[in-house]
Each structure stands twice: as structure tokens, then as C-alpha cells.
Write a structure and sequence with these properties.
Blueprint (H helix, E strand, L loop, with lengths): L2 E6 L7 E4 L13 E6 L2 E10 L13 E2 L11 H10 L4 H8 L6 H4 E5 L1 H9 L4 H11 L3 E2 H8 L5 H9 L3 E5 L9 E8 L11 H13 L2 E2 H7 L4 H9 L3 E10 L5 E2 L9 H11 L7 E7 L5 H14 L3 E5 L3 H15 L3 E4 L5 H12 L5 E4 L11 E6 L17 H11 L3 E6 L4 H8 L4 E5 L10 E6 L15 H12 L3 E5 L8 E4 L16 E3 L4 E3 L6 E3 L12 E4 L3 H11 L5 E4 L9 H10 L5 E4 L12 E6 L13 H13 L10 E6 L5 H7 L3 H15 L6 E9 L2 H21 L8 E13 L2 E10 L2 H19 L4 E7 L6
Parallel strand pairs: 13-18, 13-19, 14-16, 14-17, 15-16, 17-18, 20-30, 21-28, 21-29, 27-28, 29-30
Antiparallel strand pairs: 1-2, 1-4, 3-4, 3-5, 6-7, 6-8, 9-10, 9-11, 11-12, 22-26, 23-24, 24-25, 31-33, 31-34, 32-33
Bound molecules: adenosine-5'-diphosphate and zinc ion (2 copies).
């Protein structure tokens, strides 16, 4: 009997052994999904290896093999196991989380009758079920799913495979989700590089000269350089002077073809970075932090390192925090590597994503680029894992499997014996700390490319800022003047405020009560264009004409401001300027972000107002002024990373200015001009910020000087949630006392009500476990789970484990 080990995609911590019936023997393989019976249900599981057949127990057998090809290589299993163990998450659910969604091959594959099948049908003498299937297919191809419906019975994949193996049917793989047709474009190249040109016309000479220097050219590009009509090209083809050939071209998000580019000559700093990191490629694990100021050419370093990896036959994985940035990264990687790039992100349709995934599994692509979930890209033979903008909070997933893709990049690199390269202009405290303790090697790019200066930052103290009538305004006189002159020069302005909506703190003018969310413990934000109050945590919406809940008054004072109000003010101040806004409200529609970025690039937008979305690594050369409306918003969060986050946001958004030939300027408005996060951001001085912040962390015993696991306790009933939280707290303390020697370094903090004490109808409590080593914390939680598995979570109250938590509120 052959047995396999299966991880089931359900919240169960064990893996299970199943036997494999004979007709499936050739079909099973590690990385394929199987259908298995489990507690009177049929569920999907993942084959993770050979199982031990223990004759003493009754072993159930698998019901079907669901995939033709493995969905991931065997080499990824240790990685999945590590994750399951570290994040205390069931292995099957880890794998499920890693795979692209919507994997339903039942619906995807369609089957068709072959000639041989037709003959077999005509000959008769087929087993009844085969006969029925082939008969049905005679009417035309159909999906396996349809076939099963028509036959009103379960046709096993094994039978379909055996029919296919005998050449009676073929499987046609067609992806749902509207796979876009590849675009083609004509290209010309020289037929013979030593072509004698003496007797040719001047036009032809020019064409040949152009092709000699440029190699291959798109006909469009050639025409831009040399005025030539198609008759001439045709005649040159006929005379065997040039080749004309259709080539697949990729288009950037703006719809323009991405043309092949060549690597520029690196500057000295870039060269040193590439050689330092590149020397380690193929020689085992090594971790690097590339600290390069905004606009210093980090992406070019990534490109050349990926090229080095590919030239040695390896693959490369590139993580980028956001879809918007992926498209930029994609453009540059495609220009350099063409077809060898695969893209993974949530903006793709299910079919497209599955298609990209399959290309990686089949080794058709050797570079994968994507957002945090691309850390699971099924690449083999990885030589380098690059994490761009490694400080970005979006690498942390905060639902179901709570992982941090930046941390996992290091884990995967270690397991794969390869290089991890984290890059940022504003590294996380954690990563730079790793440099200081020599876990990471530091690589620096201290200057912008082409000697472009960093922008000059001017601080406006909002405590003293008054306009001429003595009224406080959120656009100071200095900022307004700077905007005016920037617009006059025909350059672009970026205004940053990390809060969306019109008024963030609407208050009843009659009784003083704030307008609050019904489902959360938080005030609603007025969104004027939507005529609604919205909750930014749960999405609850109510009409903006509503009355005060307490006194019924309709007079509402609009305190607090967000990007929508800034936009309105800017339109009033600069009626002739073209103003646009980029935040979650204006970019919900698919393609909206691209539209805005296109507007910026084509200079159809003069002023862009936005939230942290505009701070991310965009490269727009014509933005010469960045205005920070209020630098303090993120400072007051009750979170030990508030200062770090503020520094990163401000330094990053400042870095959007002056990336082109004209130097940039930043006007930074703040109520805390002396706060070290703000001073350091003003000077773009990461080291100064780090020095201050790290001593604070050390004094307070915060990461990186300690590790944390947070237990989040969530329930819809206020009292039950509280009681559960308190009893879990007692349990923690009892465990600590009982095993005092093992857990002496584990600190149990709480339970306390969360800073956001209710979100989307759930009351929220938390317990923070803090310790010097993650091992002790892991063991602690492991013990809690073991002793308490039945009551850890119950029907009313859920307990979620967040290892290395990021959002502590
Ligand atoms: P970063 O990622 O560090 O912010 P980029 O990699 O986007 O910076 O580089 C900024 C700009 O400089 C890009 O337009 C890029 O094409 C250009 N660039 C980078 N390296 C070079 C180089 N060695 N020579 C010329 N241009 C370069
Ligand atoms: Zn009121
Ligand atoms: Zn809400």
C-alpha cells in the first residue's frame, strides 16, 4: 500500500496520512492537491510527501487527484513548515494562503475528442462509462465540470487521465478571466552585418547605419529616426538587406509599448553595490541592507544583480510594496528581461494570476515580481530575493496568516542558501539594527544619480503661522507662495496629508457630541463629495444630512480636515490650476491610480493632493515642490513605531521632489518642529533618526531589544469578551508562575482593552507577550494552546495570535 501525507486546508494543526488507490499511483505527486474524506466531509488537501502506512490504524484513501502538475516545487515545503511553526498557523492553511486564489481546475480544463477517440467510439466495445463520455464529447469540447453535470455522476480525474494517455481525448487548458492577447509589433534587423553599403541610396544607408548601432529596432522607432516609407522597407526585405519580424511587446500601464533598454553605465557607488552583493551570488546565504537616498538609483542596482543571477542560471524574486510600484518595477524589468518576467499581484484576474503562477512553476519565467504574497512565488533555484522599500508596513499581512513578507524573505533566503537584499531610503529600525549587530551587511548609495541634489526642506511652524487676517490656515502663506511660483514655472506640486475625507471630526454644534460610528468606537469622517459620513475602520456610512444622535440638532461643526478639504481649498486658491486627488476614495475604481499617474506624467495635473499613496517610490521628474500639510498626524498614534513611521513618511514624500533636472523644494508644516523624527526627516538624515530612536527603544525594551507576540481577543458581546480576556490573562500568569524558570524572561502585559476598543461590532482586548527571545514566547504560546485548545477560542470569543505584531492598536 502506498500512502501520502496530506496537509488539509482547515484550521487543524496536524497533517494526515491517506492511502493511494492503484489508479492514482501515477498521478500523485508532492505539490498537487488531492480530494480526501475528512470528518464526514470531502475536503481539499495538499500532498506534502510520502506517508507511513501504519497497518494498525484504518487508513482512508484519497478520492481524487485535483491537479495535472504540482502547484509548487517540493523545495518549498521546508519554507511552508517553517511558517506554520513560527506563526502558529495550520500548515494546510499556510499552503492555501500561498497559492493563487480561484484554483479551480475543474472549471478551467476543457476536454475534446481526438480522431483516435472517434475511431474507438466507432469501433464500439468500450466500457460503458468511457463510451458515454466519448459520446458526449462528440457534440463538441466541454469542461470536466459540465461533463460531470451532464452525466450526473462523478467522473474521476484518473479516468480522464487514462483516456488522455491513450490519446482518445485531449485536455485544452483555457483560463477564465479574459486573458489578454499578447500584443505584436513589427521589428527590423540587419540581415547581414557586413552588408556593402556603397551603392545604396542615402535613405537606405541611414537605415543600415541606425540598425548597426542600435541592433534591432521597432519599425516605429526606426521611422522616428529616419523618414522612410513602407515601400522602401519592403524592397529592402525583398533584396535580403533586412529582416522584418513580428515580436511580442509588453505595454506599460499607460498603454505604451515597453521597449528593450540597455543597462546604463553605473556610477561608482552603484558599481560597488553591485559587486559587493553580486560577489555573493551562488555562494550561500548572505543578507544585505541597501541604504540609498531617494533617487540614488537603487532599482538599477536590482536590475543588474538580477541579470547577474540569471546569467549564472539562477532565478530572482523581487518584492515591491504596492501594485502601483509593481507596474513601475515591471516596466523596468520587462525592458531589460522581456519574457522572463512573471508578475504576481491582486490586480490581475484569477486566470491571469494562475497563468503567471504556472509560468513560474514550469520555469518559463525566471524573475518573479510582486507584492507581499509573491514571497510564495514557486521559483526554484533562487539566487537573490530583493525587497524594495523594505520599511513599508504593507509587507505585513494583518488577516488570516499574519506574516511579514520582509522577514520571510530572509527566511526563504536562508532555507535556499541565497542572497537577500533589502533596499530603502528609510530603512526600518529593525533592519538597521541588524546591520549594527552584523546580521546584515550594509551597502550605501549616498548621492542621487547625475549629481542631482536632494530637495531643500523648509519648515513652517504651524503654532506661529497666521495669515494676514490672523486666521490659522492649513495652507500657510509660505506654502501658498511657493505653489504660486512653481505653477508659474510650469512645474508640478505634490501636497501630502495622511488623512482622507473632508472633515475628520464632525461635532454637534448644539450639544458638543462627536458624530460616531455605530459599529466602532471612533468618530466618523465627513466625505463631502459622497454626501456621507464614513467610518474608516469598518466602512459604515450614513447620509451627511443626519441629525445628532443625542439632541437631534442638524447643526454640525466640521472640525478636523482631510485630503478632500485640502483639495477644495487648493481649487479656491488656484482656480486655474488642474487639481487632482489621490487617496483611497478616488482610487477605488480599477485603473484610477494609473489614470492619475498618467495625468502626472503627461502634465495634465498641476497639483496632486494625496495621502501616503503619493509618498511611495514614484519617479516623476517634473514635481519640484512637495507640500506637507501637517507632518504630525502619525506622531500621536499610541504605537511604539509612531516616530519611525512619521520619519519614513516625511522623508519618502520629500524624496518625490526634484527627481528631474530642476532641483526640488519641500515645505514641511508642523506643530512639532523640534521633534527628532521631524528634524531628521527635514535633513533626510536617517542616521540621526536611528541614533535617537534606537536609544529610546533600548530604554523602553521595545523591539529590536525584545520580541513580541500579541493575543487579540475579539467578540461581539462586550461582557463575554472582557471575561474571556481576563481569564486568558489569568491563565498566562498561572503558566508563568508554574514554569517560572522556563518563562522568566516572558513578560505578560495586559489584558487591556485595545486603543480601538470596538471595530465593526467586535469588542477588542489584547494581551502583549514580550520577551528577549522569540523561542520562549513561542513555547509560551504553544503551552497556552496545548493546555487550552478547547477554550482558547470559543463560539463567542476569538483569540488571534499575531507573532511580531505591527499594528498594536
Ligand atoms: P531609487 O530607486 O533609488 O529612488 P531609481 O532607481 O528610480 O532611484 O533611479 C532614479 C533615476 O535615475 C531613474 O530614472 C533611473 O533610470 C536613473 N538612473 C539610475 N541609475 C543610473 C545610471 N547609472 N545612469 C543614468 N541614469 C540612472
Ligand atoms: Zn447634539
Ligand atoms: Zn466603523
Amino acid at each position: 500500500m502506498v500512502c501520502i501525507d496530506v496537509a488539509i486546508a482547515l484550521p487543524v494543526y496536524n497533517t494526515f496520512t491517506y492511502s493511494v488507490p492503484e489508479n492514482y499511483l501515477l498521478l500523485v505527486a508532492i505539490g498537487k492537491r488531492v480530494l480526501v474524506p475528512f470528518r464526514r466531509r470531502r475536503v481539499t488537501g495538499y500532498t506534502i510527501g510520502a506517508g507511513r502506512c501504519d497497518d494498525s490504524k484504518e487508513i482512508k484513501h484519497i478520492l481524487d487527484v485535483l491537479d495535472d502538475r504540482p502547484l509548487f516545487p517540493e523545495s518549498m515545503l521546508p519554507f511552508f513548515r517553517w511558517i506554520a511553526d513560527y506563526y502558529k498557523h495550520p500548515l494546510g492553511e499556510v499552503i492555501k494562503n500561498a497559492l493563487p486564489g480561484g484554483l479551480n481546475l475543474y472549471d478551467i480544463a476543457s476536454i475534446a475528442l481526438t480522431e483516435r477517440g472517434q475511431r474507438a467510439l466507432a469501433d464500439g466495445a468500450l466500457p460503458p462509462l468511457e463510451n458515454e463520455i466519448l459520446c458526449l464529447l462528440e457534440a463538441g469540447p466541454c469542461s470536466l465540470h459540465r461533463l460531470r453535470q451532464k452525466l450526473k455522476m462523478d467522473v474521476s480525474n484518473a479516468l480522464i487521465h487514462s483516456l488522455a494517455a491513450r490519446g482518445r481525448i485531449v485536455q485544452i487548458r483555457e483560463l477564465r478571466g479574459g486573458r489578454t492577447k499578447p500584443k505584436q509589433e513589427p521589428y527590423v534587423a540587419l540581415a547581414d552585418p557586413r552588408l556593402p553599403v556603397d551603392n545604396l541610396s542615402p535613405v537606405r544607408k541611414k537605415i543600415i547605419a541606425a540598425l548597426q548601432t542600435e541592433g534591432e529596432l521597432a519599425v516605429k522607432q526606426l521611422r522616428a529616426a529616419v523618414r522612410v516609407d513602407s515601400a522602401v522597407l519592403k524592397s529592402m526585405v525583398n533584396m535580403g538587406q533586412i529582416h522584418l519580424q513580428s515580436k511580442r511587446v509588453y505595454r506599460d500601464p499607460f498603454g505604451e509599448p515597453i521597449r528593450a533598454d540597455r543597462a546604463p553605465i553605473l556610477n561608482r557607488e552603484q558599481q560597488m553595490a553591485v559587486s559587493k552583493v553580486g560577489d555573493r551570488i551562488g555562494h550561500g546565504f548572505a543578507a544585505f541592507l541597501l541604504k540609498g537616498v531617494t533617487g540614488s538609483g537603487k532599482t538599477e542596482v536590482y536590475l543588474q544583480l538580477a541579470a547577474a543571477a540569471l546569467s549564472k542560471g539562477y532565478s530572482a524574486l523581487v518584492l515591491v510594496p504596492e501594485i502601483v510600484l509593481i507596474t513601475q518595477m515591471e516596466r523596468r524589468f520587462r525592458a531589460r528581461f522581456g519574457d522572463r518576467v512573471a508578475i504576481l499581484h491582486s490586480g490581475l484576474s484569477t486566470g491571469e494570476r494562475f497563468d503567471q503562477w504556472t509560468r513560474i512553476v514550469q520555469n518559463d519565467a525566471s524573475i518573479a515580481i510582486g507584492a507581499r504574497s509573491a514571497i510564495f512565488a514557486p521559483l526554484e533555484n533562487i539566487a537573490i530575493i530583493i525587497v524594495d522599500e523594505e520599511h513599508d508596513p504593507s509587507y505585513k499581512q494583518d488577516s488570516s496568516l499574519r506574516y511579514n513578507a520582509r522577514d520571510l524573505a530572509l527566511v526563504r533566503a536562508k532555507l535556499n542558501d541565497c542572497v537577500a537584499l533589502l533596499g530603502s531610503a528609510t530603512p526600518s529600525i529593525q533592519s538597521y539594527f541588524n546591520v549594527t549587530v552584523q546580521k546584515f551587511q550594509e551597502v550605501n548609495l549616498e548621492r542621487r544619480v547625475a549629481q542631482r541634489p536632494l530637495p531643500e526642506v523648509h519648515v513652517v511652524d504651524l503654532r506661529q503661522s497666521r495669515d494676514t487676517r490672523g486666521v490659522r490656515r492649513f495652507i500657510s502663506v509660505e506654502l501658498q507662495q511657493a505653489m504660486q511660483s512653481t505653477l508659474e514655472r510650469g512645474e508640478q506640486v505634490l501636497l501630502f496629508l495622511n488623512r482622507r475625507g473632508y472633515a475628520s471630526f464632525p461635532v454637534c454644534a448644539a450639544c458638543g457630541q462627536a458624530i460616531r460610528c455605530k459599529r466602532c468606537d471612533i468618530s466618523l469622517t465627513l466625505h463631502q463629495s459622497a454626501h456621507a459620513y464614513k467610518c474608516h475602520y469598518c466602512g459604515f456610512t450614513r447620509a451627511s444630512v443626519s441629525h445628532c444622535d443625542l439632541c437631534g440638532s442638524t447643526k454640525i461643526k466640521l472640525l478636523g480636515f482631510g485630503t478632500e478639504k485640502v483639495e477644495a481649498a487648493v481649487k479656491k486658491l488656484f482656480p486655474d490650476a488642474r487639481v487632482a486627488r489621490m487617496d483611497r476614495d478616488t482610487t477605488a475604481r480599477k485603473g484610477a491610480i494609473v489614470g492619475l499617474l498618467k495625468g502626472l506624467r503627461n502634465r495634465a495635473i498641476d497639483i496632486l493632493v494625496g495621502t501616503q499613496m503619493v509618498a511611495k517610490g514614484h519617479d516623476f521628474p517634473n514635481i519640484t515642490l512637495v507640500g506637507i500639510i501637517c507632518a504630525d498626524l502619525s506622531l500621536s498614534f499610541p504605537d511604539f513605531r509612531a516616530g519611525e513611521r512619521t520619519f519614513q513618511l516625511l522623508a519618502q514624500v520629500s524624496g518625490r521632489a526634484g527627481r528631474g533636472a530642476v532641483p526640488g523644494r519641500v515645505i514641511l508644516q508642523t506643530y512639532n518642529p523640534d521633534h527628532f523624527s521631524i528634524v531628521a526627516a527635514k535633513d533626510q538624515d536617517f542616521m540621526a533618526f536611528y541614533a535617537q530612536e534606537i536609544s529610546l527603544r533600548q530604554a523602553l525594551h521595545y523591539p529590536p531589544f525584545s520580541r513580541m507576540i500579541q493575543l487579540k481577543i475579539l467578540g461581539k458581546d462586550k461582557e463575554k469578551t472582557k471575561i474571556h480576556a481576563l481569564s486568558l490573562g489569568d491563565l498566562c500568569r498561572r503558566l508563568k508562575t508554574r514554569e517560572a524558570s522556563v518563562f522568566k524572561t516572558v513578560e505578560v502585559m495586559g489584558p487591556i482593552e485595545a486603543a480601538l476598543s470596538r471595530i465593526a461590532d467586535y469588542y477588542r482586548w489584547q494581551i502583549l507577550l514580550k520577551g528577549l527571545q522569540i523561542k520562549a514566547l513561542h513555547d509560551f504560546v504553544g503551552q497556552l494552546l496545548v493546555e487550552n485548545s478547547a477554550s482558547f477560542s470559543n463560539r463567542h470569543v476569538k483569540v488571534v495570535i499575531d507573532v511580531d505584531p505591527f499594528f498594536l492598536m
